[in-house]
Q: What sequence folds into this?
C-alpha cells in the first residue's frame, strides 16, 4: 500500500493497555503461546469482559478447539482462526470448528476472513487441522535427513526449494516460524495422534529450543542471522560430461519413458536393446560400475 493508505490504516488501530479495554469489540483473535493452559486462562478472562455476541477466535496451530473451550460458559462462540507465517503474505486462513462451534459463527468468521482479502477454508478440529497435519512430515523428514547426515541444512533446503518447487526449504522455514512454536506444534500433533511415529519430534530441534536458538527472532537457528553472517550455500556435485551413447534394457514401459526423457535431453540413445539385468556405465579409462536395476537396464559409453 502507498504511504497515505498506510497512515489511514494506522489511524484505525487502537492499542489496548489492558484486557479490560476490549469490552465492546465484536471479534477477539487470540495469538498467545501455544499452550492449552495459557489459552484457557485467556478465554476465561475475556469471556467475563466481552458481550455475549462477541466471537472468540484462537490462532492455535494444532490445539483442540473443544479442549480450549471446555471451561467456557459459551463454547459455541469459540472458533479457530489460524493464520500462517508470515501472515501479511500468506493468504490461507483455516476456519476451525470444534464440537460445540455454531455454524453461524463459522460462516461469519469465514466471510470476515474473505473480506480481509484472505483465502479461508473450513476444517474440523482434528490434530494439526489441514496444513499442520500435512506439514509435519515435511519438517520431520527434513530433520531426519539432517540427523542422518544425508546432506547439510543448506543442501536439504535447496533441494526442496529448487527441485520440489517449495517457496522455502523445511529447515529455513522452521527458522522463520520459530523453533519454540514449531516444536510445540509437533509435540501437540504427536500427542494427539497417539504417538504415531510419523509425527515423532526431533532431538535436534529440541536441542535448538533448549539452547535458545529459536531461528530468525533470536539471530540463530539452523542458520546464522546475525549482522554480517554469511549464509552457507548448498553442496553441489560438479557437472559430468554426458555419455556418448546410451543403450536401454528390455522393452518395458519404464524403459520407454526413460528413453523419451533421454532423447528430450539431447542424449544419443541407441535403438538396440541389451538383455543385461544390471546397469553398467563404462567411463573414460575403461573403469566400470554396476548398480542393481530391476526392470530397466542402461548401458552408457563415452
A:
Amino acid at each position: 500500500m502507498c504511504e497515505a493508505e498506510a497512515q489511514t490504516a494506522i489511524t484505525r488501530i487502537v492499542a489496548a493497555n489492558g484486557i479490560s479495554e476490549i469490552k465492546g469489540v465484536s471479534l477477539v483473535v487470540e495469538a498467545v503461546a501455544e499452550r492449552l493452559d495459557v489459552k484457557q486462562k485467556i478465554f476465561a478472562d475475556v469471556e467475563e469482559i466481552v458481550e455475549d455476541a462477541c466471537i472468540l477466535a484462537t490462532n492455535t496451530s494444532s490445539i483442540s478447539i473443544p479442549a480450549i473451550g471446555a471451561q467456557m460458559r459459551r463454547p459455541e462462540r469459540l472458533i479457530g482462526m489460524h493464520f500462517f507465517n508470515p501472515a501479511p503474505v500468506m493468504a490461507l486462513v483455516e476456519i476451525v470448528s470444534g464440537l460445540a462451534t455454531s455454524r453461524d459463527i463459522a460462516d461469519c468468521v469465514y466471510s470476515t476472513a474473505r473480506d480481509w482479502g484472505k483465502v479461508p477454508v473450513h476444517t474440523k478440529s482434528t490434530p494439526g487441522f489441514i496444513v499442520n497435519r500435512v506439514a509435519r512430515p515435511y519438517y520431520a523428514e527434513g530433520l531426519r535427513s539432517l540427523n542422518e547426515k544425508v546432506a547439510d541444512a543448506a543442501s536439504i533446503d535447496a533441494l526442496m526449494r529448487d527441485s520440489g518447487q517449495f517457496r522455502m526449504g523445511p529447515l529455513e522455514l522452521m527458522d522463520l516460524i520459530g523453533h519454540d512454536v514449531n516444536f510445540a506444534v509437533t509435540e501437540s500433533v504427536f500427542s494427539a495422534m497417539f504417538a504415531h511415529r510419523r509425527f515423532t519430534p526431533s532431538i535436534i530441534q529440541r536441542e535448538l529450543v533448549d539452547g535458545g536458538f529459536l531461528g530468525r527472532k533470536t539471530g540463530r537457528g539452523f542458520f546464522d542471522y546475525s549482522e554480517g553472517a554469511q549464509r552457507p550455500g548448498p553442496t553441489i556435485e560438479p557437472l559430468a560430461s554426458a555419455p556418448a551413447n546410451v543403450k536401454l534394457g528390455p522393452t518395458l514401459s519404464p524403459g520407454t519413458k526413460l528413453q523419451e526423457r533421454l532423447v528430450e535431453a539431447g542424449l544419443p540413445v541407441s535403438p538396440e536393446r541389451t538383455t543385461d539385468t544390471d546397469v553398467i556405465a563404462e567411463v573414460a579409462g575403461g573403469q566400470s560400475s554396476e548398480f542393481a536395476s530391476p526392470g530397466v537396464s542402461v548401458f552408457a559409453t563415452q
About this structure: The radius of gyration is 27 Å. The CA atoms of residues 190 and 197 lie 8 Å apart. Residues 277-302 have pLDDT under 50 and may be disordered. The beta strands are 27-30, 55-58, 78-82, 92-97, 119-124, 245-248, 269-273, 278-282, 288-292, 298-301.
